[in-house]
Amino acid sequence: MLTEALPYYAYRDYLTQRYGEPLFRVPIDLELGCPNRRPDGSGGCTFCPENGARAVQTLDVTGTQAQLEAGVSFAKRRYKARRFMLYIQAYTGTFTSVIQQKKKYSELLEAYPFDAVSIGTRPDCLSKATLEYLEELNKTLDVYVELGVQTIHDKTLERINRRHDWQASLDAIAALKAHNIKVCAHIIVGLPGEGREHYIQTIQALAPLGLDGIKIHNLHVIQNTQLAKEYLAQPFPVMDEHEYAQILIDLIRRLPPDLPLMRFATDTPENEIVAPKWHMGKGQFTEYVTEQMRLRGYRQGDLFEAGNQALELAMPNVFECEDGSCTFWNETFRDYYHPRSGARKQAAELFLQRSSLKERLEKGPIRLLDIGFGMGYNSLSACEMAQNLALHPLEIHAVDQDRMVILQSADIIKNMPNEKLAWPQILKELYKEGLYASKYFDITLHNSDVRYALAQQEGAFDVIFLDPFVERSNCRMITLEIFKCLKKLLKNDGVLIGSKIHAAAISAMIEAGFCVKAADQSKSDIRGIVAKHTGPSIKPESTIPYRDPYGVWTDRRIRQYREEEMKKH
């Protein structure tokens, strides 16, 4: 079941619920080989390395007893582990006679008091005798079979040289369930020739089969594999961290909420990976996916027909501003979303007025990029202006990773007497569909990390709004790399309007090539900047800008790097 801490059912939580505490895996390579390889070890699946994807902690260890000792020692040292699961991992764990299976498994099970055993194998390596043996073994300790399914698409299976079809996986899952053996499926996202619809179809086919666990990971092109040769000869698309996270979240939402998610990233030594070259560690990627699911209000199973769950929405503290608009107090960032003088006043006097949006709309169609959409005041004020002018269309692309604040805002934002648009209804539609369209304006919501959202933009913009809210906590939005990207996205006669932009961000903007002026309102707490390609510019303070060279750093890491650079200077 899902826990309050995570928006998905983690395998660790499943183990804790079943055994009272987590079981830590001790990976063993029995050197059984694979039926898909030739006697000399060549051949096999195109993605599989020569060592059969052996665990990192046992790569330099020979002999099963030594592997066992190394695995137990590693888990105790790194995780303070107390209870363990034997994991027959590399190659194909059932590719030998039942007599040999019994002998090899028994030796290991007698050498250490394991609570369970997990066996990695192929759908075409489960004979009747093996199934009967595993069923018997299951009476003394839990037996899990981890089945390499990879994909349900036979064309792909043939292309990667699996030498079995999807029906073989279906038959194997049914046979294992018939013998009361727990079965977990492995799938790979990003196999050559596949796209989002292929991955969704694979998940939808597996979801109703009563699995006991699932492993998902993105494709790694590993050195000295057939796939590496193909990639180096003619590169095919591979996923970076943000793209894979987007797809992964979509897949997790389509899984039954009670299906344990064993992993969604994998370990391959960095020096062995040909592609993709990630700069997020496995732990950071897990934290990133968790964060993104929470911010968007997504949970495992919310797209699975039998697993819809009511969303419990906690409303932040609401405060009324001087102009009658409402804003939130963010407990995490310890600040208000808007200045005390008001959200509507800030939208009108800073973002709309300083961008000359009215004059631009009077001349022709306008494309607007709103980064940090938040409660929506800036975009909705712009839409109100386009509707009132009724001259030319306004196309808005709104970026924000926090989808929940949009729904929360719909419940507290009220239309002013002179406003013709139903602001709450627009927000609810954006929350639900990610799109709102009318005759004179439309808004597309890009609900993702700003770095991924900007990478997906096509075409240039007349106006860019940038509201990082609390700079220190959202510094991924105001790095030198972000401003270099925005410089390319802004039309030659375009303008960028920013709020709460401080020294480090201004330094980054000017270094990126912007000409920057202050846009502070006299006798007001509204502060901002105006940036263009040409024109007069303020002189930046002598400070170091925020940097995010790989586009994946956390806000904390970005701040830390800047602090380190400042000490050097």
Describe the structure in your own words.
With 569 residues, the chain is α/β, with parallel strands linked by helices. The protein folds into 2 domains: 11-296, Aldolase class I (TIM Barrel); 342-566, Vaccinia Virus protein VP39 (Rossmann fold, 3-Layer(aba) Sandwich). Helices cover 36% and strands 18% of the residues. It has 19 helices and 20 strands. The chain has helices at residues 11-19, 64-79, 98-111, 128-137, 154-159, 166-178, 196-206, 226-233, 241-252, 282-296, 343-354, 357-363, 377-389, 404-410, 423-433, 450-455, 480-489, 503-512, 555-568; strands at 24-28, 84-88, 116-121, 142-150, 182-189, 213-218, 221-222, 261-263, 273-275, 317-320, 326-330, 335-336, 366-371, 394-399, 435-437, 441-446, 461-466, 490-499, 515-518, 528-532. An 8-stranded mixed beta sheet has the order 15-16-14-13-17-18-20-19, with helices on both faces. Helix 3 (98-111) links the parallel strand 2 and strand 3. Helix 11 (343-354) crosses helix 13. The chain is elongated. The model has no long low-confidence stretch (mean pLDDT 90).
